[in-house]
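chain below, 386 aa
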Amino acid sequence: MDTLDHCLSKPATSNLLSASKKRKQEALAAHPSQNRTEVKKKQPSWLKRKQELEALRQQTQAMETRVVYLEMKQSSPNKNLNAFNVQKAKSSALVEKQRCIAAQNENMQLRAMLQFYTRQYEAFQMAIASGEYQLKELQSITSGALRVEMGAGRQLRACGTQVFDMMERRLDTRFHELEYAYRAMQQPMISTDTETIQTRNERGAVEFTRLELLPFEEEAISSTMWSFIEEGRFPDGEQSIVSRRSDDILAVNTRVAVQIDCGSMVTIDTHGVVKRFMTGEGYAVLMEGYSEWTVDSPASGMWHHTTREGGCFVMRDYSVESGTSSGICQARSLLCLYPDENYDTTQSYPRSEENSIREVVISSYSQLIKSRHQFVQNALFDTIRS
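prediction:
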C-alpha cells in the first residue's frame, strides 16, 4: 500500500518541480541584470585563479620577448666594434703603463751608473793629479841625485836603485812608440840608408832618426847588439858599469869622451835603463836615461849641460816583392834629447850660448852614433867571416 501511495504521489511532485523551474526562468527573462549578478556572484574561485594565471603567463611572455629584443640590439655590429675598441684601448694603456714603469726603472739604473762613473772620474782625476805631482817631485829628486853623483868626482859611479826605478816606469809608458815605429817602416824606402836630424824647440831638443837596410838576419843583429850593451863593449866608452835588473832589462852607466870639429872636448856621463822586446813585428829596444855634459871649449871655457834621453830601436826582416824573406833586415832608430827642465842652466852657462850648446849636442851625438853603428857592422861582418 505504501508503495502504491509513493508511486501515486511522485508524478505530483515532478509536476511541482517543473512548474517552479518555469517560474524562475520567466523571472530571469523578465530581469536579465539580476540574473548576471547572481551568476557572477556564484563564479567559482578556481576559475578566478585560472584567469589570473593566464594573465600572468601572458605578461611573462611579453617580458621574455622584450628581453630577447634588447639582447639582439646589444649584440649588433656597432656594439661589438665599440667593445673591441674599448678592449684594445685598455690593452694599449696597460702596455704603455708597463713601458713607463720599465723606463723609470731604467732611468734609475742609469742615474745610479752616472753617479758611480762620476765618482770614478773624480777619483781618476785626483789620481792623475797626484801622479803628475809625484812625477815632478821624482824628476827633481832624480836630477838632483844625478848632479850630486856625477859631481862627486871624475870617477864614474852607478846611480841608486830609486833613479833606475823611475827611469823604468817612464820607459814602460813609451811602449806605444813601438807601434808608431813599425808603422813608419812600412813606407817605401827611397834609399838603403837615411839619416835625419831635427831640432824640436828653441830650448835645444834634438831628434836623431836613422832608417836603413842591413845585409844580416834579424836574429844575428839583435843578439850581437844586446851582447855589446850587456858587456859594455862599445869602444868609445872610457868607463862602463852595467847591471842586470831582469832578463830583458839592463841598467847602464857609461862615460864617453868625444872631440868635435871645433876643437872642444866633450865628456858625456850617461845613466839609463835599456829594455828589449820581442813583438809580432820583430825585435825592439827602448832606452830612457839622463846625461851630464861637460864641455871644455877653447872659445868659451868649461861649461855643463844636462839632458834627458829617450831612444827607440826596432827592426824586422825585410821582405822582397814575392813576400819571401831576403836575408836583409830593416832597422829604424830614434833618439830624442831634451834639456832637463829641473836643471838651472843659467848658473852654468849664459843664455847667449844656447845655439852653441845645440851645435855641440848635435855634433857629439852624430859622431857617437856613427861610431857605434860602424862598430856593430864590423862585428857582424867578422861573425860572418868566422
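The chain has a mean pLDDT of 77. The domain at 159-385 is CATH 3.30.530.20 (Alpha-D-Glucose-1,6-Bisphosphate; Chain A, domain 4).
thats it, cya
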